[in-house]
Design goal:
It is built from 12 helices and 20 strands. It has 383 residues and is of the alpha/beta class. The protein folds into 2 domains: 214 residues, TIM Barrel, CATH 3.20.20.10; 127 residues, Lyase, Ornithine Decarboxylase, Chain A, domain 1 (Beta Barrel), CATH 2.40.37. Helix 6 runs parallel beside helix 7. It starts with 7 loop residues before the first strand and ends with a strand.
Length: 383
Amino acid sequence: MKKHGLLNWIELSEAAFRNNVASLVKIAGEREVAVSVKANAYGHGLPETVTMLSKCDGVGYITLHTVGEAAIARQAGWNRKIMLLGPVSLDDMEPIVELDIEPVIFERRQLEKLGRLSRQRKRRIFTHLKLETGTNRQGITEKELPAFADIYHKYEFLKRPLGASTHFANIEDTTSHEYAQYQLDNFNRMVKTMRRLKIGPKIRHTASSAALILFEKTRFELVRPGISAYGYWSSKETYLSYLQSGGHNNLFEPVLQWKARVSQTKQLAADSFVGYGCTYRTTSAARLVAIPIGYCDGYDRRLSNHAYVLIKGRRAPIRGRVCMNIVMADVTDIKSVRLDQEVTIIGTDGSETITANDVASWAGTINYEILARISPTIRRIIV
């Protein structure tokens, strides 16, 4: 592991990642698995995650949000299927063919442009239709399906969509799943409409991490787990529902640890202010350390005076405001902290652990955001 000279880095446990993926593949059974690696693989690093995922059995797809992400995945050696969840500019459709991408369609002009491109290239383009069932973001309503069917029938190299998908609005943040059932009923009805229009999909996919783990009837022919591949539950409610159904907490293990080094130690007198805005004031003599991370690295400013880091196996509270490149931590009660001492931002040190869930709680957000916002410029190391 080459971390010599680094002041701020990410460690990725390949063993934990492979265990998480194996757990998901086992739950999926005979269904095809598409692991989400959008948003820089939820902050874990897209090239590094693709490298690890390429060694995992039972995963045929990755899902991404942008064409640029797809190009990075191909460059990193991913030679299996890619499903593109996000939009594509009408002026930049060529990479769909060049990178062998399966786009998820929710806009007629996009499908029409792909139809013309497929005819020009005399090449089949596999697509998936995103059905609007109640989340009201990207998606096609049932009334729009005949117009999409006309486009599919018009272009011989489109023929029909390979897949039909939807996304649940309220399956993670609740232990009551009536709305998810409402969406699932809408999805099933719309798939029947697609079949009547002779654009019936070969594969259906609705299951995110929470749906995959909790509801077999959402799994269909393909599943699309995301956060669980990286060792986290979608929410406390998802975990509670899992336990209530008889599950055990041995499925997932966090993959990512965020580390840094002490860049300065400081001895402060009583009544000394710390940082911008003078938001923290010492009540007695204190010893503080500077740590070279900040909000430009994805360490949220809302963590000011709320969070902790781990130093020598003990919790050190953040003092003052999180700056662009620096945070200060109090090590008054931790002996012999020195320059270049290793600091754990997220991860385990001795018997203490700080998870992305902990950081999310301090910042008033969710684990997804904490992970996804870690700067892509920070070095990722597979361990």
